[in-house]
Write a structure and sequence with these properties.
The structure holds two protein chains of two kinds. By secondary structure, chain A is an all-alpha fold. Chain A has two domains: about 1-50, no CATH class; about 70-295, MetI-like (MetI-like fold), CATH 1.10.3720.10. Helices cover about 70% and strands about 0% of the residues of chain A. Chain A is built from 13 helices and no strands. In chain A, helix 2 (about 20-50) packs across helix 13 (about 275-295). Chain A is globular. Residues about 1-20 and about 300-305 of chain A have low confidence and may be disordered. Chain B is an all-alpha fold. Chain B has helices at about 5-30, 35-40, 50-65, 65-100, 105-115, 120-130, 140-165, 165-175, 180-190, 195-210, 210-215, 225-235, 240-265, 265-270. In chain B, helix 1 (about 5-30) packs across helix 13. Chain B is globular, with a radius of gyration of 23 Å. The two termini of chain B are about 40 Å apart. The model of chain B has no long low-confidence stretch (mean pLDDT about 85). Classes of the chains: A mainly alpha, B mainly alpha.
Chain lengths: ~300, ~280
């Protein structure tokens, strides 16, 4: 609460026409700020406090232990395993999705008749509940009767043990994530592509540039802002994603798909080790803060002040 | 019209893309018509519709296992939370778009950055808050955190829409004696209606699939939402009854399918809100 009142008193109103009381700003903005302070900022601080305690569900309040959780975490091989898995997942998911998304956007830019129907189908996955995406792919990839394995055997190959082997499970998680989220990159890049002026392309054609050169030298540079935007969003969402792994592999086998989100969840929900779980979550926030700050140097997200 | 081979290949590729895109959903739909044993025996499954079995599967999922009730819970929770987020977020977006005050930029970026917050970082405190307030296993127990989740997105989308309306309109109305709040209510809201629809759709979508907080807050089956209900349905049984799991899948995809028909017009705008223009 005190935070809210200080924010109110500190807010000085430069916009001061005669019938423009500062009260109006506070009236319009106040409820939103107050709500976020109570239900977002406070929980974040509470999490920070939790991360400095040894609270478990059994003990009730927990004792202040300083940075003990963070020290424990830095030497916990399971934490580093999860961090590594998160890094692998984010890097490969985003890279594959950007390449496929741009390719799809270029393809749909051919303006084929009936293209909008296929586009509608392709957009469905990203609206789906990730838990159900997980279940759906567990059916498709079932080693005994799944459709995918049947198809692979039909063309005479041996299907891999998608979710059952340590070496393959992360690959499978990344592939399913790509199935669900490539449409996101596609639709954003496609929207940008549609908005580009045709003059440049006509000029390039007049100058005799082939399709490959046109793509490399003209299309790609003009699409870069949209691609970066989509990649940043995807990177953050892949980093914090949790439900897909819950539904698809439950972090296994042998923790090979346990990402930081899932690791924190296991410590909090399963082992009720709230302090440690909060410390892991705070490491994630730290990584996110650093990561997005670096990335946002290259991309403007606020509407209105874009270049 | 002459037929160009490149064009033909492109259309073939489009058809293949459509088939591959639709196949997982059709597969799920076919599995949902089967007996449990048939799924293991028929590879690939054949399409011979047995209506008694279909009715049995869907009856089991919708009524016996409660997916219909879970869907209603989701609609209630998401509906109320989205309406509240619009109600709180729209005036804030208007203030950010029109009024100049100290730290407005930083304040806006702070709110917008909350869209990136990992739910795992706030799930436990939110759960403890809800528990302290005695709101476990209730609609408010989910609605209150969900408003906070969709609020940043609503503000973000609405700022974009307000920014597009020339501020001369506000000024004209204010010269005519309207107050700021009056301008928003009487002048802006009718103009910005497409924005409200976009913000509501994407605010709703953002929390429709929420799982983690629901997992903490809801214990009783009576208040489970779609994602939580589906998760407990498909993980509770061991081994999974795949015909039932597939039926659960179809039942959850149907609202999404209906939703996507409405959302097509708005999807680009909703997703790229705040994107570089």
């Amino acid at each position: 609460m005190s935070l809210a009142t200080t924010a109110a008193t500190q807010t000085k109103f430069v916009f001061g026409t005669r019938d423009e009381p500062g009260r109006a700003v506070w009236l319009l903005l106040g409820p939103c700020l107050l709500y976020l302070i109570v239900f977002s900022i406070y929980p974040l601080f509470h999490s920070l406090r939790l991360s400095l305690t040894d609270l478990t569900a059994a003990t009730g309040t927990g004792n202040f232990v300083g940075l003990a959780n963070y020290r424990a975490l830095l030497v916990d091989p399971l934490f580093w395993n999860a961090a590594m898995n998160s890094a692998i997942m984010v890097f490969f998911s985003v890279s594959i999705q950007v390449v496929l998304g741009v390719a799809l956007a270029m393809f749909f830019n051919l303006q084929l008749k009936g293209g909008w129907i296929v586009r509608g189908i392709l957009l469905l996955p990203m609206l789906m509940t990730p838990i159900i995406v997980g279940v759906m792919w567990r059916a498709l990839l079932n080693p005994d009767w799944g459709l995918v394995n049947w198809a692979i055997k039909q063309i005479g190959l041996t299907p891999p043990d998608w979710l059952g082997s340590v070496g393959m499970s992360m690959v499978t998680v990344i592939l399913v994530d790509c199935w669900q989220w490539t449409p996101f990159v596609f639709i954003i890049v496609f929207a940008r592509l549609q908005a580009l002026s045709q003059d440049v392309f006509e000029a390039a054609q007049v100058d005799g540039a082939g399709p490959f050169v046109t793509f490399r030298r003209i299309t790609l540079p003009m699409l870069t802002p949209a691609i970066v935007f989509a990649a940043v969003f995807r990177a953050v969402d892949a980093f914090r994603s949790f439900d897909l792994i819950y539904g698809l592999s439950y972090g296994g086998p042998a923790r090979s798909t346990t990402t930081l989100s899932f690791f924190s969840f296991q410590n909090g929900f399963q082992f009720q080790n709230y302090g440690y779980a909060a410390a892991v979550a705070y490491m994630m926030l730290l990584i996110l803060a650093v990561g997005t700050t670096v990335m946002l140097r290259y991309v403007q997200i606020r509407p209105g002040n874009s270049r | 019209m002459k037929i160009r081979p490149g064009r033909v290949i492109a259309y073939l590729f489009l058809i293949v893309l459509g088939i591959f895109g639709a196949a997982p959903f059709l597969y799920l739909a076919v599995l949902s018509t089967k007996k449990r044993i048939e799924i293991l025996a028929q590879v690939p499954p054949t399409l011979n519709l047995n209506w008694t079995q279909i009715v049995k599967n869907y009856n089991e999922v919708l009524f016996s296992q409660g997916m219909l009730a879970f869907t209603l819970n989701s609609i209630i929770v998401v509906g109320i939370a989205t309406a509240a987020a619009i109600l709180i977020g729209t005036p804030a977006a208007y203030a950010f778009s029109r009024l100049r005050f100290k730290h407005s930029e930083q304040l806006a970026s702070t709110i917008l950055s909350m869209r990136f917050m990992p739910p795992i970082a706030v799930a436990i405190p939110l759960f403890l808050m809800v528990k302290t307030a005695g709101l476990q296993d209730s609609y408010p127990g989910l609605v209150l955190p969900y408003i906070a989740f969709s609020l940043p997105l609503v503000v973000w989308i609405m700022i974009g829409f307000f920014d597009e309306i020339p501020s001369e309109i506000d000024e004209a109305a204010m010269i005519d004696g309207c107050t700021r709040v009056g301008v928003l209510w009487h002048v802006m809201l009718p103009i910005v209606r497409p924005g409200l629809v976009t913000a509501a759709l994407f605010g709703a979508l953002f929390i429709w699939n929420e799982f983690l907080v629901a997992l903490y807050v809801i214990d009783s089956r009576a208040f489970q939402t779609i994602s939580l209900g589906a998760a407990t349905l498909v993980s509770a049984q061991r081994p999974i009854d795949w015909n039932i799991a597939a039926t659960v899948g179809v039942v959850t995809v149907i609202p999404i399918l209906l939703f996507s028909l409405f959302v097509q017009r708005y999807i680009v705008r909703g997703l790229t809100a705040g994107a570089v223009k």
